[in-house]
Structures are given as C-alpha cells and as structure tokens.
Amino acid sequence: MRNIVLLEPEVNEAYDPLRSLNYAWDCIRVPIIVPLLRIAVYICIAMSIMLFIERVYMAIVIVFVKCLGKKRYTKYQLDSIKEDLEKNKNYPMLLVQIPMFNEKEVYKLSIGAVCGLSWPSDRLIVQVLDDSTNEVLRVFFLIQSNLSFDCMKIYDSINDSRETMCKALVELECRKWIEKGVNVKYETRNNRNGYKAGALREGLKKHYVEDCEFVVIFDADFQPEEDFLRRTIPYLLENPELALVQARWKFGTAGVWRIRALHDAGGWKDRTTVEDMDLAVRASLKGWKFLFVGDLAVSIEAFV
C-alpha cells in the first residue's frame, strides 16, 4: 500500500506594518543614523570647547582690567553736561515716534506720557504712527467740538471691538494735545507694508524730521517718566560715537537713537520681526557704540 503524503495548504501571511518598519530601521540605523549621531556629538564637543575658551578668555580679561585699573567704558560727567545744557539753552531737536496698531486700551496713556516729557516744546516733535485698520464714524470725531456728548459713549454703544473707530480715537487724542501746544504729528498709511519697521521707516522720511538729531521710540503701551529725555540725551551729546542709549528692562525697554547712526546702518528693515536687534547689529558692524543706562526704566502695560 502506498504512503499518501498530504501537503499542507499554503497560508498567505497578513501584511505586518510593524515588522516592515523594524526592517527599514535595521537597514538605515547603522549606515546612516549612527554616523549622523557621531557628527552631532563631535559638533557638541566642539561648541562646548569654544564656550569654555570664551569663558576663560573673559575671566582673563576681567582680571587684567581689575588688576591694571583699566576702564573699557567712558565715564560721563552728567551733572556738568546737564548744567551746560540748561545754561546755554542749546537743546537738540528731538523726534519721538509712537507706532501703534489698534491700541484702543493704551493709546491715551502712551500719548499722554510722551507729551508730558520734560523738554522744550519747540525742540520736540511727537510723531504718532497709526496703522489702525478701522475709520468707522470718523466724522463724529472731526466735529467733536460741536458735539454735546462723549464720543466714547458712541463707541461703547456700537461695538466693543478694539478696531472700531480706533483711528478716530487716536486722532482725537492727538488733536487735544495739539491744542495744548504740543507739536504732535499724526501720520497714517494706506497699507501696513513692513508693519512696525515699515511705519518707523516711513515716519523718518517726513520733511520735518530733517531738523531732528535724535529719535526716541516708544511702543504704544510705554509710559516713560517725565525726565526720560533729560537722563538719556546728555550721553549722546557727550559722546558722538554713541548710536543708542538704552533704558533698563521693566516689562519692556526704550531707547534713543542718533538719527545719523540709524541712517548709516541702513535704516529700519522689515525682513525680520526683531527689527530693533537687526538694526543694532548693523549699526555695531558700522562701528557705532551703545550705552545701557541701568538706573533708567520705562514701564509698559502689565498683563495679569
């Protein structure tokens, strides 16, 4: 009797994605991943060595300066500078720029603080650069003097949106300060090209800026102290190599630029969102120097 051999039917194994991924990982791990990780380790080691050398170098420089009594900074005699400024009444022409965009909550604070700065009114130009997007009911504000009710009540009754009538509100505030004798220039644009940097750049192109020697820049929520200019401008007058005097951080910063240095560095660029740092780097490469005033702070709107 013949032996009958029964063949088992072929079973088609189901596709296993996990097994495929493991196989792909095994194929690329040794020839690709491992060399890349080794390169990354070498780069980290090199950067660590560079950082260590930099720390050692700075320590040597500090010890050297301390031992020899050398000072790598200029010692300013601010009292004599301020006295000379008061005596000769030779105040430089200043431009203060306030760029803003739909700043309904804080525009009064910033404009009021800037207009209250201690500086001769005939030597100060306050430039409000308003890029707000809405001009609804602008006519109400243009005839404000003939109305017997408060325009803010109109605003509250219509819409609580910060964009509604924002331009008109800012312009009205500027008009109030103009009536008080402050030289306020209210500037708007038909577009927002370049955003904040674009607004600052366009503001510097105005004909009345040609007479200004320094430009001070405050954001829309900044509230500088009354003596801010008298505590910063003397540094720039004393040292012609200074491009910028920077105030201390206090939920924000503020600074005074020498307009000549600003133009020499190429002006404001809108290629980045950190336009101030971009300008500072370019000015530094041009050889301009900077000064940080640690005891001068500018407050801004606080968020809780």
TrEMBL record:
Q: Does the keyword Membrane apply?
A: yes
Which Pfam families does this one have? Glycos_transf_2
Q: Topology in the membrane?
A: Multi-pass membrane protein
Example GO molecular function: mannan synthase activity
Write out the GO cellular component annotations. Golgi membrane
Outline the extent of the Glycosyltransferase 2-like domain: 174-262
Query: Which keywords accompany this UniProt record?
Result: Cell wall biogenesis/degradation, Glycosyltransferase, Golgi apparatus, Membrane, Transferase, Transmembrane, Transmembrane helix
Q: Where in the sequence is the signal peptide annotated?
A: none
One biological-process term from Gene Ontology?
Answer: cell wall organization
**Which positions, given as ranges, span the membrane?**
39-65
Q: What is its main location?
A: Golgi
Localization (cell): Golgi apparatus membrane
| PANTHER family named in the record | GLUCOMANNAN 4-BETA-MANNOSYLTRANSFERASE 9, OS09G0572500 PROTEIN
Annotated protein name in UniProt: Glucomannan 4-beta-mannosyltransferase 1
Annotated source species:
Sesamum radiatum
The beginning of the lineage is: Eukaryota, Viridiplantae, Streptophyta, Embryophyta, Tracheophyta
